[in-house]
Amino acid sequence: MAAIALAALLFALGAGGFSFQLALSSLLPSPLDWEAAAALLERDARPGDAVLISPAWAERIRELAPRGMPVLANPPSAPGELEGVRRVWLLSLPRAPLFSYRPELDLLALSSAPEPPLALGRLTLSRYEITHPDLPLATLAERLPIAKAWLADHPCASDRGGFLCTSERAEVSLESGVAEVNGLSRSCLLARASGNGGPLSVVFPGVPVGRTLRANAALVPGGDAPPSVPLAVVVRVDGEEAAAVQLDGAGWPAFRVDTGRWAGQRHSVALEFVVPENRALCLQAVTLP
Amino acid sequence: MNAPARRPPRLIPLAWGAVAFLALAALGNGPGISREEAGALAAAGAVPGDAGADGARPPLAPLTQLSVREPGSVAVHLRFSLLARCRLGSALAAGVLSALLSFLAGELGGAGAAALAPALLLGPPRLLLPLLAAGPRAAGTALFFSVLLLYRASFRAARRPGRGFAALGCGGLFGLALPVEPGSCLLLGVVLLHAALLQLGGPSRPGPAAVPRRAFYPRSALLAVLAMASIGPACALASWPWLWTDTLSRAGEALASVRATGALLHMGRFLPPGRPPLGFPLLVTALSLPAAVVGTFAAGVLHAGARLWGGVRSPREPRGGGSLPGPADEFLLLLGAAGPFVAAQLGLAARVPGPDPWLAAFPLLAVVGARALLACAAASWPARARLLSACLAAAVLAPAATALARSYPELGASWGELAGGTPGAASLGLPRQEGEAAASLLPEISSRARPGARVHFGSVPIAALAVYAAEGRIRQDLVAVTSPREADLAVVSVGGGPQDEDYRIRAAFQTSTPVAGAYLDEVPLAWVYARPGAWR
User: Fold this and answer.
1) How far is CA B102 from CA B93, B97, B137, B157, B204, in A?
2) Interface residue B499 vs chain A (CB under 8 A)
3) pLDDT digits (tens, 9 = 90+) for B256-276
4) Which residue, among B357, B186, B182, B181, has the nearest Cα to B252 in the 3D structure?
5) Which of A111, A135, A160, B87 is the most buried (most CB within 10 A)?
6) pLDDT for B470-485, tens place per residue?
7) In a domain, A14, yes or no
């Protein structure tokens, strides 16, 4: 009896595996499906739209999506993670193995009820209107080309939209980039130090300031370096200290600075921080209405 | 479930050896070069490049170097590419392994097992790839299996000289295996434990001699252990000139190199160096191989365990008379299969994706699995045992063959049905590849890059690029540059972990839109980015 059961089990596993292998292609989108999704996005997308892919590996759409349209691989867990986005197009592969509806649920928590999803072959596309979009007045990383920077009183040299700062003991490169921090990609000011980094000061002129400045800062994980190193960030508006905060370098800690005194006008905003020795720091800062 | 005494098949092992060698030689040109293989190619001096990220590793043993270096002009005349020529040594080792595996399976389970066992080993893409790739894996696995085969002969052979020669051969081969794969030192523990238990008499208590049996000789097993402990290190020393100076310290360094170092992506996070989580090798095996093959291996272990238990409870294998595989064999098969898994669980195995680090266990699992499948068919339907065996074998091998056909040449990105295939594995956060997928983008780069374009190949190893360039897979006018800022085109390997390299290139190229990608089942494995005008 045990032998018969085992034979039946092996047959079942074999037949199941064979069927899975044969059926896998038919569960996944064809090139035509991707092109249809891209064409639809090209036609209907507006500024302030982004594409969220589900599952996170379904990145083929990056080849085809309209240029400049952000493609997000991870569902937002907080409104701040959809910075500047008013509508999200959720592009799903619902028949893919181990497909999860979690991105949809996360989006539903942030948006009004979507229209019924549109089936494009084995892809589905649905549009979500974010109920309280996070629309910053200014993103400091995007204003880096017009900023000025100093490393321990030494002015930094402009370098392809960023800065290259050198002092006696260190060299720090500063650019507007993307880094993977706390499991998600973050667009931020990316400062990489080789040698013992000194205090770096970046001044952004003419920044439209609202009632709040929101920032996150963390070290980019890498190598055997300890993830948790304390970070200090000072925010100045027109040379006046608005906040000085101490953060844990691990995770993706956030802080808010009350800038109500300066709201409604353009001001010079400066960020001062120290990049730990041979590490990279990702600092995201936006001004909010 | 004891089968009647039979003469082991001879032609099937020979045929399997030839078929495996030819098949692997033919398939050798397809898969790209992973970081580990590139390190082996560079260390062997086959191509220029960095010998590996871990500079502390000892150099390759001469036998491994010999197997990695391209052979003479015959292969060139046969129009083998450089990569295929460098992989011929592994193909040869895999051929020998297949023949030996078929031979042992035939001895223990008859012609059916001899025919089936190598297919169980060579069918799943994740087992085929390390046997096909240049490096020590195939030769190390073949030597591991050969040592166990000779050890078995050392206590099984009917005549004393035969047992003595087997014991000496066992020691000699162990000495060759040590430099190729220092992790083979666990063989000594396996045979020591086996020989000790043979002495204790569990499997060897005298019993009724109702069935003709071949003898087994526990003292000869001790002789083999002694040979391994004495001749083994001597052979290792003689065959590896690197050990001739500062011997003890370098031997310690070689043994220490088996420890798991480096980070490996597993279930969405990186495993730190040292011991992996409990059950890691079993889980990776279950997820990376076709479920039917995993089921057959599991059935084989249970079957061998049941036979061992039955043999211990009612011994029918006395000293000096018998011809059937008995508890001594079962115990050896189980110990041999368990050894590499235990080593991996203890953190004494390389940190590379998939089941490669405990590959040496799979030939033994294939033997017990094939035998269990045939025994299962025979017990389920005795009157049509052969037909049922053939159907069962076809059912078990069909998913592996289909997976192989679908995933070739991206064999390293293939995962089993339990993981949900490559898409499911990507969702689970399992590694996708080790830099080899960039090879499949080279034809498109060569055809569409503008003349004289500067290409940043990212984390593709230098040795791999040297091979691709020597084979003409990279257009000659393309210039490799080390910084994405200087490049017109950039290639990014997508391993499934953090995508910092991808982000850096996106920042340098000021675009997040790739111009081409390599995919397996819609899962991205590599991207190409281009500056305006660089992609035609």
Assistant:
1) 14, 8, 19, 19, 26
2) yes
3) 888 877 788 999 888 888 899
4) B182
5) B87
6) 999 999 999 999 999 8
7) no
Structural domain of A222: 138-288
- CB within 8 Å: B423 and A220: no
Q: How far is CA B264 from CA A3, B39, B53, in A?
A: 39, 17, 14
Instruction: Give me the amino acid identity at A144.
Output: L
Greatest Cα pair distance in chain B: 85
What secondary structure letter does DSSP report for A129? E
| Planar angle of CA B177, B16, B96, nearest 5 degrees | 15
Distance from C-alpha of B524 to C-alpha of B517, rounded to nearest angstrom? 7
List residues bridging with A119 in a β-sheet: A124
A149 and A276 inside one domain: yes
How far apart are alpha carbons A201 and A148 in whole angstroms?
8
Distances (CA, A) of B143 to B8, B139, B179, B180, B400: 22, 6, 11, 9, 25
Q: What's the pLDDT tens digit per position in B374-420?
A: 999 999 999 999 999 999 999 999 999 999 999 999 999 999 999 99
Are both A36 and A102 inside the same structural domain? yes
Contacts with A282 from chain B: Cβ below 8 Å: none
Is B319 in a helix, a strand, or coil? coil
In chain A, the number of structural domains is 2
Q: What mean pLDDT value characterizes chain B?
A: 89
Q: Which segments of chain A does DSSP mark as H helices, in order?
A: 2-27, 31-44, 61-64, 102-108
Q: Which residues of A54-69 are buried (b: 16+ CB within 10 A; e: fewer)?
A: bbbbbbbbbbbbeeeb
Among A14, A55, A62, beta carbon nearest to B292: A14
Q: Could you tell me where the DSSP H helices lie in B157-276?
A: 160-180, 186-200, 218-239, 247-256
Q: How many helices (H) and strands (E) does chain B have?
A: 21, 7
What average pLDDT does range B352-370 have in this prediction?
96
Measure the CA–CA gap between B91 and B68, rounded to whole angstroms: 10
**Measured between alpha carbons, how far is B357 from A242 in angstroms, rounded to an integer?**
56
**Dihedral sign computed on CA atoms, order B198, B200, B201, B203:** negative
Contact B464, B134 (CB under 8 A): no
Please choose, from the candidates B143, B226, B128, the residue with its C-alpha nearest in 3D space to the C-alpha of residue B179. Answer: B143
pLDDT band at B212 (very low <50, low <70, confident <90, very high): very low
Shortest CB distance from A98 goes to which of B372, B380, B428?
Answer: B428
End-to-end C-alpha distance for chain B, whole angstroms:
66
- A159 falls within a domain: yes
Question: In the prediction, which pLDDT does B322 show?
Answer: 39
Beta carbons of A15 and B291 less than 8 Å apart:
no
Identify the pLDDT of residue B203: 44
Query: Any chain B CB within 8 A of the CB of A98?
Result: yes
Query: Letter for the amino acid at B187?
Result: L
ipTM value: 0.91
- B211, amino acid identity: V
List A257's β-bridge partners, or say none.
A213
Q: Residue A33 is encoded by which pair of tokens? A: 């499906």
Which of A107, A129, A151 is the endpoint of a domain? A129
